[in-house]
Amino acid sequence: MKLLLRILFFILLGALATGMYFKNKIDYSQGERIIGLTVLAGAFIYLPLFLYHHWKGKRLQDYTMSEENIKKMREK
């Protein structure tokens, strides 16, 4: 999963750089499309995979303010 995330990150980074190049040098509208599709892919493909990978195996209760966690904080 870690390798997949790295590969996808560099693909998205390359696509963003390509979009910026197209926008500035070749065709403005084509560059805007490439940048837009890259942002959509980053938001709807990369971000959920990234969050799933980093939250796997963790309990949400450890990161929320419950009565039990507040008592632990007061004891310290």
Could you describe the 3D structure shown?
- There is one protein chain.
- The chain is mainly alpha-helical and 76 residues long.
- It has helices at residues 2-26, 28-55, 67-75.
- It has one domain.
- Helix 1 runs antiparallel to helix 2.
Which tags fit this structure?
76 residues, mainly alpha, 82% helix
Task: Provide a quick synopsis of the model.
The protein has 3 helices and no strands. It is an all-alpha fold.
**What is the ordering of alpha helices and beta strands?**
HHH
**Biggest sheet layout:** none
Count of DSSP H/I helices: 3
Number of strands: 0
Low-confidence stretches: none
Shape: elongated
Helix content class: over 70%
Mean pLDDT: 90
Q: What is the straight-line distance between the termini?
A: 37 Å
Estimated radius of gyration = 20 Å
* Percentage beta strand: under 5%
Number of domains: 1
Question: What structural category characterises the helix and strand content?
Answer: mainly alpha
Helix-strand blueprint:
Elements lengths: L1 H25 L1 H28 L11 H9 L1
